[in-house]
Amino acid sequence: MIGSVYTAKTVDLVDVDDRLKIIQVNEAFRKDTLAFREEYKEAQGEITHRIEEARNLLSHVNLSPDVLESVAKSCINLKVDGCRPDIVIVKAAKANAAFNGRDQVSYEDMTIASELALTHRTRGSGQASPPSSQEIQEMLENTPLRRVPTGGKDHIKTLVSRRTVKKSALTLKSALNQIFS
What are the residue boundaries of the structural domains of the chain, listed by start? Predict the structure, then answer.
């Protein structure tokens, strides 16, 4: 995705065991880079394969008119500066769908992409701070996209228009933690 920039949200680790694991992994890498690479070779191979599959699927990922309308309305209502955020959200949502082996952008893809693209964007010509994750989620709840359960699964595989489905009582989970953990 030429010209796209992804950001990652940092979190404070307050669990001692989590922090110790990070330090230990870093020390193992510094101590013996080759052994470290060998230890993680299989996991890296799996990720590499998944990325290759996503690249092949990316051009086949579909966007419904509701996706595009939801992106545009959210960016307008959040008063983010410029049109670049709209484009980045669409590209990131398509990439996330492909990475997860789907050919249709879901509400969850849009949420993840919106948080990645908007939580650092200025608003109101640089006079307002970036929108929070909560503001973004609330804004998406008021667009044509809706998150509804399908087939008893916890994750969303389809887009459903707000115009055709009753309001869902589900709340959003932390999408960033799901995809990057």
Answer: 16-58, 65-180
Beta bridge partners of 123: 80, 128
Q: How far is CA 68 from the centre of its chain?
A: 16
In tens digits, what is the pLDDT along the chain, a chain of 181 residues? Answer: 444 445 555 667 778 998 999 999 999 999 999 999 999 999 999 999 999 999 999 999 998 888 899 899 999 989 899 899 999 999 999 999 999 999 999 988 999 999 999 988 878 777 888 888 888 888 888 777 764 444 334 333 333 333 222 222 222 233 333 333 3
Its CATH class, for the domain covering 65-180, is: mainly alpha
CA distance 112 to 100: 13
In this structure, what DSSP letter does residue 9 have? -
Pairing of strands 160-161, 145-146: antiparallel
